């Protein structure tokens, strides 16, 4: 992955360009931790060769994993980054386009880039904290933390 700082006045903005074969969520998380990002938002377009989407099952309090082993266009990828403990945590949702022009989407758990993923990431000067929510079982952003 290559990166470039586009702006450092107020909100720091990065352009991130992922290359074929990189695992998107893992690399984005590594980048966020390397740059000590505690609150950010991002959007992206590109394509994946394999993807694991998640759908949160309320009764089980866990994500159902839905793997796709096919080339798909990233029509829309949006997400945020917040702190969970001392680590940066990426939360992303994606809509993917298939060869037959149908779409699928969900929580992005894993994705293998092919040929590229172009991410525009904007960091906020304040940090956000994720805190365990006992009702859902998830780590949710706590505005007051």
Q: Which spans of ≥5 residues are poorly predicted at pLDDT below 50?
A: none
Bin the helical content: under 10%
CATH class: Alpha Beta
Output the number of helix runs.
Answer: 1
**Hey, roughly how much beta strand do the residues contain?**
over 45%
Structural class: mainly beta
Structural features, described:
The protein has a single domain (2-125), classed as Hypothetical protein, similar to alpha- acetolactate decarboxylase, domain 2 (60s Ribosomal Protein L30, Chain: A), CATH 3.30.1330.80. It has one helix spanning 24-34, and strands at 2-7, 12-19, 39-57, 62-68, 72-84, 87-97, 103-123, 129-132, 139-142. The chain has 1 helix and 9 strands. It starts with a strand and ends with a strand. It is flat.
Describe the protein's topology.
Elements: E1 2-7, E2 12-19, H1 24-34, E3 39-57, E4 62-68, E5 72-84, E6 87-97, E7 103-123, E8 129-132, E9 139-142
How would you summarize this macromolecular structure in one to three sentences?
The chain has one helix at about 25-35, and strands at about 1-5, 10-20, 40-55, 60-70, 70-85, 85-95, 105-125, 130, 140. With about 140 residues, it is mainly β. The termini are far apart.
């Amino acid at each position: 992955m290559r990166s470039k700082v586009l702006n450092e006045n107020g909100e720091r903005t990065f352009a991130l360009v992922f290359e074929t074969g990189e695992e998107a969520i893992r690399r984005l998380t590594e980048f966020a931790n390397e740059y000590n990002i505690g609150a950010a938002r991002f959007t992206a377009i590109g394509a994946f060769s394999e993807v694991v989407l998640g759908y949160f099952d309320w009764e089980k309090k866990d994500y159902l994993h839905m793997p796709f082993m096919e080339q798909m266009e990233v029509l829309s990828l949006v997400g945020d980054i917040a702190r969970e403990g001392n680590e940066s945590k990426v939360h992303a949702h994606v809509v993917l386009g298939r060869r037959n022009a149908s779409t699928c989407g969900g929580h992005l758990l894993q994705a293998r880039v092919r040929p590229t993923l172009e991410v525009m990431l904007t960091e906020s000067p304040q940090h956000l904290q994720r805190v365990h929510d006992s009702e859902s079982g998830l780590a949710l952003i706590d505005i007051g933390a």
